[in-house]
């Protein structure tokens, strides 16, 4: 596709520094400053689409000398989880995949030294250490401890959920993302804005634990935060201040203010230091902190700050230390992981098998629905191709049976189409597991293949069992079993085919388009719609690679070489009726073509599963979230980075094509607005108790999430709804906005004194949810215009 004109954008510019063990490091910077890119570079996870120069070393070892994803853990901003799993199951799965690291070896060494020294360990302490180092239990002690620290113990048995399935809150999902890597053995942690969606007390509790573990276990932790509270900021030992891809300051937290005082900027006494450090780099906020009254203020760019830091004493000490190479001999062998995965391959295979078995149970509704759908289609098929109206006398009769075989195989083929949507929905989680080296992709493919065999058995067996004799196929048990075997192989091939399409498309729209096109090609070139003799020579290769051709030929040979069709086709031929039909429709009449068809379908199944594993291991998600800059913004950013003259805002707005364009030539209009008040009284909200909680002994039938909530919202008053994560803020807003589709709601809601009617309330209200769901192919302006066209009155001028 045409990519258009591109400009080079420097995301990180000559970033150098040292992240020290046993010290908690804070990475600060405004949005689009390069924090995520820096963390990815340090974790060794920068994509191949970015050009990188320089070197990252761990204890003097380059990234190619060990396995960075196993040594370090990168906590992403995105909360990708399997919606059908509970919090405890998610953490247990992550813990089993990552293993215990070097804890087991350390325990063995400790036991040896205790035995040699004649020391008898404390019984409770010995049990605790063994539970940490051995693992493999149903419920790990580490998982229980991490859930307690992160405040997830209250929702441990609650489904994670997503946009379509009710689950935990957004803040709890953020903590779950952090917990997935804390249960592992990684000694280096890179955490990207883990406080988004969390209240300050929960953030403080998590970081307090990270500080203690970093100091006690000699860990290395770098955490990116946007606006940390003062008490949270005080927990850190070091600060890295990043702006426009350049490190402005790196060093002890206590010396950060001294550096900016050296530059002429002073933090007010009651000002949050973290906010000051970010605002002092902003052009619009910098001047208010200027503290030299006898010198005129001038804007200092991030490039100037970076140059000044190199000449500052803290910066000099840092770069002097960087100039001295680290002696690799002092690095402990267990500090860096050289194995790609945390546990043995057979354990990973067993863990994945149990995981996918659990997901099959949670998604049992899908398989039951597919079974009912297959049953209904089978009834329709039997009513159309009823044996009472079909005969075995002429070639035209055989054509009807040939159509019945073709229709049956198309239904079996279509039955695997659901694999596309099921796989695409799980792909973000699978990519996360792959990048974190939880397991190899073949360890996911094999269990999914094995668990699909029972599905193919009962679906293909059910179809053959209820349709074979009703339609009137050849009444021979051997041919009945052969048709069942053929349909089973076809169903397996269908599942593998659509998994390949899902892993290749990686997007629901693209994958469904590919899937529909693949079905069109397979059906058109399968030998039934267009016979082999009528396919053009330049398309005949499609006939030979179509798996439906082998299935159709095998099914036709199995049926028409049977006893029911073993009669002469006419007085002037020695062929049987079935063989004559096969030759007339350009099928191969030899009996061994049945086994060729079965072998071809099995070969396609193996090949497609190998391709599925390959695509899952090597392809990355389609599209990526990134900041977008206009040409003017890019030029100004480059000037600030180089320390050149910065364009004034008025001058920039005067010549900006985006601001001075056609969309802003007309004057705006004032829309009429009717102030409304909203009051709610004794709001109660109940949901059904989950099965997991009932199994733990809870006898109630309903769980109450909102208890007698009463309040009012007034016009011209901005109201803040605050509360800890999981307090019910989203639930209350969903109830008030009328977005709840399940559960029981009690209480009254009034709009300006009148009872709320959802039909009219939806027209006068707007609800911004946590999930950012947009049309991916529209621009920002087009999205806003579309929303305005739908919501504004019809008398509003549509022209801008």
Automatic annotation (TrEMBL):
An annotated GO cellular component: plasma membrane
Domain of life: Eukaryota
InterPro entries associated with the record: AAA+_ATPase, ABC2_TM, ABC_transporter-like_ATP-bd, ABCG_dom, P-loop_NTPase, PDR_assoc
Coiled coil: none
Transmembrane segments: 365-385, 405-425, 446-471, 483-502, 509-530, 592-617
Keyword Transmembrane included in the entry's annotation: yes
PROSITE patterns registered for this protein in UniProt: ABC_TRANSPORTER_2
Subcellular locations according to the entry: Membrane
Principal location class: membrane
SUPFAM superfamilies: P-loop containing nucleoside triphosphate hydrolases (SSF52540)
Domain ABC transporter: 2-269
Any one Pfam family match given in the protein's UniProt record, by short name: ABC_tran
Membrane-topology descriptor: Multi-pass membrane protein
UniProt entry keywords in alphabetical sequence: ATP-binding, Membrane, Nucleotide-binding, Repeat, Transmembrane, Transmembrane helix, Transport
Family, as annotated: Belongs to the ABC transporter superfamily. ABCG family. PDR (TC 3.A.1.205) subfamily.
Name of the protein: ABC transporter domain-containing protein
Organism: Gossypium harknessii
């Amino acid at each position: 596709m045409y990519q258009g004109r591109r400009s080079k954008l420097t995301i990180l510019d000559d970033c150098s520094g040292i992240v020290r063990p046993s010290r908690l490091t804070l990475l600060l910077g405004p949005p689009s400053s390069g924090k995520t890119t820096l963390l990815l570079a340090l974790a060794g996870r920068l994509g191949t689409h970015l050009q990188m120069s320089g070197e990252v070393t761990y204890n003097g070892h380059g990234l190619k000398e060990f396995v960075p994803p196993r040594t370090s853990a990168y906590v992403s901003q995105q909360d990708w989880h399997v919606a059908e799993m509970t919090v405890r199951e998610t953490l247990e799965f992550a813990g089993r995949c990552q293993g215990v690291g070097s804890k087991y070896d350390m325990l063995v060494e400790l036991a040896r030294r205790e035995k040699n020294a004649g020391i008898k360990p404390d019984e409770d302490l010995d049990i605790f250490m063994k539970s940490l180092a051995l693992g493999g239990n149903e419920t790990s002690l580490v998982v229980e401890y991490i859930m307690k620290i992160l405040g997830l113990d209250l929702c441990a048995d609650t489904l994670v959920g997503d946009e379509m399935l009710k689950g935990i809150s957004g803040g709890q999902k953020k903590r779950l993302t952090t917990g997935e890597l804390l249960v592992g053995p990684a000694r280096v942690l890179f955490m990207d804005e883990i406080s988004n969606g969390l209240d300050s007390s929960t953030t403080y509790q998590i970081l307090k634990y990270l500080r203690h573990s970093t100091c006690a276990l000699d860990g290395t932790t770098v955490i990116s935060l946007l606006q940390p509270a003062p008490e949270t900021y005080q927990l850190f030992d070091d600060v890295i201040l990043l702006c426009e891809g350049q490190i402005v300051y790196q060093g002890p937290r206590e010396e950060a203010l001294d550096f900016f005082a050296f530059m002429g900027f002073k933090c007010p006494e009651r000002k949050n230091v973290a906010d000051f450090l970010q605002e002092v780099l902003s052009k619009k906020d910098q001047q208010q902190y200027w503290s030299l009254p006898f010198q005129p203020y001038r804007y200092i760019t991030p490039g100037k700050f970076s140059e000044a830091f190199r000449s500052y004493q803290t910066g000099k000490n840092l770069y002097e230390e960087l100039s001295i190479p680290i002696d690799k001999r002092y690095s402990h062998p267990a500090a860096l992981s050289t194995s790609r995965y945390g546990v043995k391959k057979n354990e990973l295979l067993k863990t994945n098998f149990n995981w996918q078995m659990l997901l099959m149970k949670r998604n049992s509704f899908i398989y039951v629905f597919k079974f009912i759908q297959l049953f209904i289609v089978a009834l329709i098929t039997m009513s159309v191709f009823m044996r009472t109206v079909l005969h075995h006398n002429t070639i035209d009769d055989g054509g009807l049976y040939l159509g019945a075989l073709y229709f049956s195989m198309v239904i079996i083929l279509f039955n695997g189409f659901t694999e596309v949507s099921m796989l695409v929905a799980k792909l973000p989680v699978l990519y996360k597991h792959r990048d974190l080296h939880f397991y190899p992709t073949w360890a996911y493919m094999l269990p999914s293949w094995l668990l699909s065999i029972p599905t193919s058995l009962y679906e293909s067996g059910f179809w053959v069992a209820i349709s074979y004799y009703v339609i009137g196929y050849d009444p021979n048990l051997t041919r009945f079993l052969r048709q069942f075997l053929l349909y089973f192989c076809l169903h397996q091939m269908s599942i593998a085919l659509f998994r390949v399409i899902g892993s290749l498309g990686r997007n629901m729209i693209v994958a469904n388009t590919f899937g529909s096109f693949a079905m069109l090609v397979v059906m058109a070139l399968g030998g039934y719609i267009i016979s082999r003799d009528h396919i053009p020579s330049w398309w005949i290769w499609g006939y030979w690679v179509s798996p439906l051709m082998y299935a159709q030929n095998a099914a036709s040979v199995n049926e028409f070489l049977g006893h029911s069709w073993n009669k002469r086709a006419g007085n002037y031929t020695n062929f049987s009726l079935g063989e004559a039909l096969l030759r007339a429709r350009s099928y191969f009449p030899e009996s061994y073509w049945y086994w060729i068809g079965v072998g071809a379908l099995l070969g396609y199944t193996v090949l497609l599963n190998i391709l599925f594993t390959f695509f899952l291991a090597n392809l990355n998600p389609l599209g990526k979230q990134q900041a977008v800059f206009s040409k003017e913004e890019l030029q100004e950013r480059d000037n600030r980075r180089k320390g050149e003259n910065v364009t004034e805002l008025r001058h920039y707005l005067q010549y900006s094509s985006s601001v001075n364009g056609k969309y802003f030539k007309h004057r705006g209009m004032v829309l009429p607005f009717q102030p409304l008040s909203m009051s709610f009284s004794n709001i109660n909200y109940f949901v059904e108790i989950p099965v997991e909680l009932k199994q733990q002994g809870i006898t109630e039938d309903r769980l109450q999430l909102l208890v007698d909530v009463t309040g009012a919202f007034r016009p011209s008053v901005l109201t803040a709804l605050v509360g800890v994560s999981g307090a019910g803020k989203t639930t209350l807003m969903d109830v008030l906005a009328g977005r709840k589709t399940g559960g029981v709601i009690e209480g009254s809601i009034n709009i300006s004194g009148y009872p709320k009617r959802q039909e009219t309330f939806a027209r006068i209200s707007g609800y911004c949810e946590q999930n950012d769901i947009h049309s991916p192919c529209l621009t920002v302006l087009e999205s806003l215009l579309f929303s305005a066209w739908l919501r504004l009155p019809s008398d509003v001028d549509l022209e801008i």
